[in-house]
TrEMBL record:
Organism superkingdom: Bacteria
Keywords in alphabetical order: Hydrolase, Kinase, Phosphoprotein, Repeat, Transferase
Protein species of origin: Paracraurococcus lichenis
Pfam family, one: ATPase
Keyword field contains Phosphoprotein: yes
Name of protein: non-specific serine/threonine protein kinase
Length: 498
């Protein structure tokens, strides 16, 4: 038997959506775009037609609910012009006030007349791309499911016979017949708008069906911005396997690298765990800036602090963060989870890795990423997929997790240690009348590491890590106590910087 020919596709004008379609929308087929009002169906359809007009194709928008003026205003809000798109404004006679009747209304006749007007205009203009907006009005005209399905089946054959690629929109307000409609069309694209408890609403889509074609299943976040429809394909880490080298990278602080058995290995994830102010972000920043010093690119995603705060702290540590950001060597991003969807965040990380070859990625902090989006049920799973992807790409990933409390019984807000290849524990302890800081490595999957606990401090010249503290007790309990001689401690003449 001859091998089946692949179905030809066309670009939708939304590049990332074409990625989820594994190339584009199948040509000469009837596709349903469904979603409640406000989900983005009209914007989606306009982008589809504008792409066709740009390519010199004849495009038709059949509107049964909005006027041509309203449609033009909607396009203008995105900075688009409908020039090159034929807008066929079709208001069913039933909707005209002067045609309203109080006794009987020939619904099936009116429905058939409306369908004839649509097919007649298509026959006259011979478009290559068509949008029909929306099926809700046609469903109301038909009143009965049998003539509705019969006419849509005839419309499907009519469009296929003329090799037209068509999108039909449905706002799901009819309350019946959706399942039957799914079986009739070639493709089904579902759009959804989710209102959060706080912050911007989240939009997502899924390809429920695409007959005869491969596609990426599951939900994909998307956003409507001025002039663009941005789709963020869900990440499949197994599709990004590489053979990275696993050599260790240095932080530029000899004592810190020694505690970690030579540094952090490429293609691994390290979690810095400790109470607020222990220096987690500063340690992560040392690794990011050391990468910049080696001529590599680094990315820092901050959910907690502003760039002004970070730059001031970096200056206190002698790290030229502002210069690195201005030169494009370090990319710093303020991630606002009340406006950001999980899919968009993952896509931003991917762009840093795939487009700018980031060697180090810092996520600061997991607390804010997980805690500010409580309605998201799959964030840990998404984070696991992201970290697997980063490991496959040979990236050194640093996660920051702030523990609840400062001293005493500090606790992890959530146990995510299973996500990490290495876990670095930071603690405060009291000695010689001062608050001091201790560092230890409690886990490293990829090699040996020190079992000792060392004191460290942050100061204007950078970071200093002292010798092992043989007489420090209770680090793992959260209440460390130094019982040895004061000579084991680092000098205290400089003020610390957290």
């Amino acid at each position: 038997m001859p091998e089946p020919r692949p179905i030809p596709t066309l670009c939708t004008g939304i590049p990332e959506f074409d990625v989820t379609l594994r190339g584009g929308l199948p040509r000469h087929r009837l596709h349903l775009v469904e979603g409640m009002p406000g989900a983005g169906k009209t914007t989606f359809a306009l982008r589809f037609l504008l792409e066709g007009a740009t390519n010199g194709e004849r495009c038709l928008y059949v509107t049964l609910s909005e006027t041509a003026e309203e449609l033009a205003a909607s396009a203008a809000s995105h900075g688009w012009s409908l020039e090159g798109i034929d807008v066929f404004e079709l208001v069913p006679a039933e909707a005209e006030i002067e045609n309203q009747q109080t006794v009987l209304y020939p619904a099936e006749a009116e429905f058939g007349q409306t369908m004839q007007m649509i097919t007649g205009h298509i026959e006259a203009t011979r478009p290559e791309r068509v949008v029909i907006d929306s099926l809700a009005e046609l469903r109301l005209l038909a009143q009965d499911s049998l003539p509705y399905r019969r006419q849509l089946l005839a419309l499907k054959r009519f469009l296929q016979g003329r090799r037209i690629t068509t999108m039909v929109l449905d706002d799901l307000t009819g309350g019946r017949g959706e399942a039957d409609l799914h079986s009739l069309v070639h493709g089904v694209i579902s759009l959804e708008q989710i209102e959060r408890n706080y912050g911007a609403s989240r939009r997502r889509l899924r390809i429920a069906k695409m007959r005869g074609s491969d596609y990426q299943s599951g939900w994909h976040d998307f956003a409507l911005t001025t002039g663009e429809v941005l789709v963020f394909p869900s990440l499949i880490a197994e599709e990004h396997k590489e053979q990275p080298n696993h050599d260790a990278i240095s932080s530029g602080v000899a004592g810190l690298d020694k505690v970690l058995g030579g540094g952090l290995d490429r293609g691994t994830t390290t979690m810095l765990v400790g109470p607020s102010g222990a220096g987690k972000s500063s340690i992560a920043l040392h690794y990011a800036m050391a990468a910049v010093g080696r001529g590599e690119h680094a990315a820092y995603f901050s959910f907690d602090e502003t760039f002004e705060t970070l730059s001031r702290r970096a200056a206190a540590l002698g790290l030229p963060v502002v210069e690195a950001v201005e030169a494009g060597e370090l990319d710093w991003r303020r991630a606002n989870p009340s406006r950001l969807s999980p899919g968009e965040f993952v896509w931003q990380v991917r762009r840093e890795v795939e487009d700018r070859q980031a060697a180090v990625v810092v996520i600061d902090s997991l607390n804010s990423y997980l805690g500010t989006m409580p309605e998201e049920q799959s964030l840990v799973l998404q984070m696991h997929e992201l970290l697997t992807y980063l490991n496959n790409k040979g990236v050194v990933t640093i996660l920051i997790l702030a523990q609840q409390g400062v001293v005493g019984d500090v606790q992890n807000p959530v146990d995510l240690s299973f996500l990490s290849d290495a876990v670095v524990l930071l603690r405060f302890f009291e000695a010689a009348g001062e608050v001091r800081k201790a560092i230890s490595v409690v886990k490293k999957r990829t090699g040996v590491h020190e079992l000792s606990i060392r004191e460290y401090r942050l100061f204007p010249r950078g970071m200093e890590v002292g010798p092992p503290l043989m007489d420090l007790r209770g680090v793992l309990t959260g209440v460390p106590t130094h019982v040895g001689p004061q000579e084991q401690l680092l000098g205290s003449e400089s003020q610390g910087a957290g």
